[in-house]
What we know:
The structure holds three protein chains of three kinds.
Chain A: H1 3-13, E1 14-26, E2 39-51, E3 55-59, H2 66-73, E4 81-86, E5 89-90, H3 96-105, E6 106-109, H4 123-133, H5 139-152, H6 169-181, E7 187-191, H7 199-216, E8 219-224, H8 227-233, E9 236-241, E10 244-250, H9 251-256, H10 261-268, H11 311-315, E11 321-322, E12 331-332, H12 348-351
Parallel strand pairs in A: 3-8, 3-9, 6-7, 7-8
Antiparallel strand pairs in A: 1-2, 1-4, 4-5, 9-10, 10-12, 11-12
Helix pairs in contact in A: 4-5, 4-6, 5-6
Chain B: H1 2-29, H2 34-39, H3 45-55, H4 61-73, H5 87-122, H6 127-141, H7 144-161, H8 179-213, H9 216-223, H10 228-256, H11 260-266, H12 271-280, H13 284-318
Helix pairs in contact in B: 1-13, 5-6, 5-8, 5-10, 5-12, 5-13, 6-8, 7-8, 7-11, 8-10, 10-13, 11-12, 12-13
Chain C: H1 30-40, H2 42-59, H3 61-68, H4 105-141, H5 143-157, H6 161-172, H7 176-202, H8 206-213, H9 218-254, H10 266-273, H11 281-309
Amino acid sequence: xxxxxxxxxxxxxxxxxxxxxxxxxxxxxxxxxxxxxxxxxxxxxxxxxxxxxxxxxxxxxxxxxxxxxxxxxxxxxxxxxxxxxxxxxxxxxxxxxxxxxxxxxxxxxxxxxxxxxxxxxxxxxxxxxxxxxxxxxxxxxxxxxxxxxxxxxxxxxxxxxxxxxxxxxxxxxxxxxxxxxxxxxxxxxxxxxxxxxxxxxxxxxxxxxxxxxxxxxxxxxxxxxxxxxxxxxxxxxxxxxxxxxxxxxxxxxxxxxxxxxxxxxxxxxxxxxxxxxxxxxxxxxxxxxxxxxxxxxxxxxxxxxxxxxxxxxxxxxxxxxxxxxxxxxxxxxxxxxxxxxxxxxxxxxxxx
Amino acid sequence: xxxxxxxxxxxxxxxxxxxxxxxxxxxxxxxxxxxxxxxxxxxxxxxxxxxxxxxxxxxxxxxxxxxxxxxxxxxxxxxxxxxxxxxxxxxxxxxxxxxxxxxxxxxxxxxxxxxxxxxxxxxxxxxxxxxxxxxxxxxxxxxxxxxxxxxxxxxxxxxxxxxxxxxxxxxxxxxxxxxxxxxxxxxxxxxxxxxxxxxxxxxxxxxxxxxxxxxxxxxxxxxxxxxxxxxxxxxxxxxxxxxxxxxxxxxxxxxxxxxxxxxxxxxxxxxxxxxxxxxxxxxxxxxxxxxxxxxxxxxxxxxxxxxxxxxxxxxxxxx
Amino acid sequence: xxxxxxxxxxxxxxxxxxxxxxxxxxxxxxxxxxxxxxxxxxxxxxxxxxxxxxxxxxxxxxxxxxxxxxxxxxxxxxxxxxxxxxxxxxxxxxxxxxxxxxxxxxxxxxxxxxxxxxxxxxxxxxxxxxxxxxxxxxxxxxxxxxxxxxxxxxxxxxxxxxxxxxxxxxxxxxxxxxxxxxxxxxxxxxxxxxxxxxxxxxxxxxxxxxxxxxxxxxxxxxxxxxxxxxxxxxxxxxxxxxxxxxxxxxxxxxxxxxxxxxxxxxxxxxxxxxxxxxxxxxxxxxxxxxxxxxxxxxxxxxxxxxxxxxxxxxxxxxxxxx
Lengths: 352, 319, 322
């Protein structure tokens, strides 16, 4: 894709644009007198466009920075550097009061159905919170709105006065969803919304999310570590590793032609329902642990665990770009991308 | 560990400095004139001025503050206004009395509190437990001065009426003079301080032991076939020791600065009595010295507790 | 994405064909549950009745005094003292006997209850209010705010409070207001520390993030989202703080630096009676009993309140049946 084509498209239908977003957390030190502070490089230079109306999946192992990225987008964290633009407006340096109108346009659904609802407050007032905070609707009017929302997410509006403890995990996620939808947001960031639920309930919540997307024209950023869930809901998928996006593509493209060895390894771990499709050679188990995000590896961050790594990978940081022969939407950050159908481990001969 | 210790000591010194400054400031902001009070009603202006000059009270406040801190740093707390004696020597007279009272009382309440606490926790809801918790409630709710009065009334006065003089009503005999008499004069004060304080230790010991006894690892230990008594003492007591130790440090530190109430009720000439009498006489240097000393005891006790705590904690982690 | 047919949506418990129940479904919140447990607890009911009785006596003390015809400071030199000037024992005229000046001990005891309850409640209330605000701010904001506030609490907690309180009172002059202020000053820091600890864990919960992502202000998050979650331990501590404050006030009065005579307080009555215990046991016994019963009732109630909020914990004062 040419640069003009890309930017033209950006101006047309990009809802959220991330440019080189960086988030570092200082590591608490028990030093008596200062010294050099260390940082956790939770998100380390992420650029991504989210298009209006799409669902983009964000996957990676735990600790790869996907939840931190979600919180940078919704400004629960302030970014260390880089910009987050919503509808063309940079929101990463807005003050609390300037930010308030944007809060209405993007909301978040949280992972923990128990931790995300205040146990001491009634469901009605939890879902009514957005109205209270933004000064919308009073008394009976607000109650009607809340009950409409409860109906919208499939809850019994009669349960208005109950406490969160009286609901199941799935029902609690519906409550969280109702709260997120109260202000009719354009973007909903779902931070592993189903990973804490039973598998049977997961499907219900995922279908509800899809249903609501159709009804309300929502854009989703869907974070998960479960690839099969992400594949089911996402139009596009971005794969994260140690604070970076290593590959991004349309869902079917990514599953069919993974370019980054890490993506390939992740995909090989997804159980396939059809035994004929299981390719023994492709069952790859990554060796070693994820390196510390305090001192990330030099060059390509994946090189200590990569079966294809060569000396160039230890020094030169690969750029996220479109590889030869790929469709314009498919980008990967790798010096030695995997070819179509190529096994992940190169033979000795190829390596030489 | 060392870093932690250094930080604690620095904090302690800062606390003492704050206390010194606050106490010093309190007496200069206060709306009364020491020199006039000391000089008496009949004194003329010149006498008052002379007294003021002698005490150094006519110097600028900052200079007084500076020399006060400087001297205090060297262990010199100045001279008492009312007794022509140095504050340190006044403290020297009172300290043995307070230390005798607190050390004896502390041993008593520690033994009493921890043993009954363990006893109650090992037989939850038994008669022993009920009696113990009732006892704890009674003495926990009992103000020190009330218990002191009741003990005086029952053990000194009632016995005295029928001709039994086991327990003296007031006074103090130094240990070096006559150890037996020393103990005889201190029994009632010890009992007072110990009974009132032991209640807290019963609660702490019983509470944390019961909590531990419900933990999975205790059940595992029991299931392994370890004897109940062994489990109780090895695991249960270890869990109880940290809160008990912390409380012990705070209590001893606070009381060493002056077991004011107990000393008052039993007429013991300790630091607590000294505080009250010097306040009545507006003897500033003595009051400031005593408050500083009391704070120093608390600060040092806290540091010792923190050190013991981390040593114990390391042992728990190792085993 | 697939769209779910409506019949696959998770059951919400009640079918919507029961419209009659709309307003009737009232959740049983944590507060209600604690309250229900407290009401079933005999010890709690008993100690509450005792406390209520003392409060009523204190409230209606002037009325009782009027009814009996004995003012709290009226000296009955003929009826209240024997010809040798010895106090009169308990009887029909003087329910609890008289004191060294021929005053009615019963009337003075119920007047003393006013001071004790007032001092206990007001100083505990003040301490809790200040402690909650400081603890909330320290825990919620963290960083430098927490550093300063926590060090301040550490300093207050490492003061030898009785010595310091006495020094303060001697300077400012004894009075009820000063006593209350001094007691509150030495009590708020422990409340603050408890609240701070609780807030530190609660502010990490996702519902706080949810409130922030909705654009809630710091004040709203602190008081609407976090405070209800730290209230239970705070209430428990507050009930335990009342008897401590009552004892503190009585001690100050006993030492002659609290509320001064002739105003009747349990502390100064006990201080006066110490010289007369040989001849007038009632002069010691009744104010002493009043003080002891009050603190015991509050401590028992506090224990029950703790139990009501956390039934799995162990009781400290009552060895209950399973």
